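Appendix B. Raw example, untouched.
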Amino acid sequence: MSTIIIDSLTVTDDTLEATIRPSSDLERFFTDEPFRTSYDCTIETVPEGVLAIPVLAHVCPVAWAQGADVYVDEVDASFARAVEDVKASLLSMYDFLEGGTLYARNTTTVDPPSSGQSGLLFTGGVDSTASYVRHRAAEPTLISIRGWTITPDARDDEDWNHLRARVEGFADERDLETAFVESNMLSALDHPMLLAHYKRHVDGAWYSSVGHGLGLLGLCAPMAYARGIEDLYVAATHWEGIDLEWGSRPDIDDYVRWTGTQCHHDCYDLTRQDRLELIASYVEDRRSDPDASRLELQTCNARMDGNCGECEKCYRTAVGLRLAGLEPSAHGYPFADEDYHDIRSSFENGDWILGLDERYMWEDIRDAVRETEPSSPAERAFFAWLSDADLDALVAESGSPLHHRLLRAGARNAPNGVYNTVYPVWNAAKAGARRVR
């Protein structure tokens, strides 16, 4: 019988650690590392049922993929019910998920500290900035997490420092509190092996397609309890009308809860261009406020200390800013009319690896283009091309490199002993892909 046992749950001041013990058939999906998460506040008074949430939020989806049961000594009763709701959503989304049951010796409900505070997962990108603008009257605590796009590895220290400085600067200018969470969740799980097994079933990777809604929100549980955060917001990536298989959606995030905290999938009613329009209104309304007028976004796929201005996401954001009436160079993106030619060339030459996400986002831009008067001949030529471009074909012609697909297939079918031998090769390939994406 396939099982995963969570034990040895310990807390030392601001750090949570737990041991994950999978049955032998599931060992390949986990490493030997204990699950570990650190906060910038003490969590020693947080109840054990809430402390179990971060590790359960990451282990349960892996268990559901294999039809395994999960065992833990104690879990918060509200979260135990939330797990069932999230499981139902994911099973309805993905045929390859089999389900499983969470068993706890004790399910508990306690009286949480109540302060009426709210929190917002925040990176400084378009989505989280729009969510801040929408909820700014509540003065949410800005929460940033290290462990997914920025790993706990020392090589990512500089990126993490850049993110922290940017978020702290944004918060200081608006008199907001911040919270920083660091976790090894994707190295306690064997994320490359999960990717090897399940990439063929999803449009993105394991964490983006399956785990990150429940996972990132669950990481915040001990900190949210300690701080008395009642409403926790995570900004939507997609919007109404886009029915993509994705790990963060209203029918996942809105179900996540624990004693004292309700989570919310935010701004799902706005397209990405709508969110840029919301940010533009915020900037325009506060044109005399230097904190608002110098607002810089960070969305780059290549660097964390600003935006390169040349990757697909930078170009996409710059075009969206122009359509919203903002000058990209004033908000973090070097951009000139000549760049329109480069965008078209990159599309037509297949320079970018695109998925359905990008297809919908460029379609959103194309819809806005049809209602916009071009400001220059270069812009007019690009808008005319984009209006007639076959986005489906452009996305279909892009994809991950062949050698990455072969590595995934090989790892998927290798015995554990063989996999342990070839893992360094796969990991190096993964790191190389990360550096050039």
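End of appendix B.
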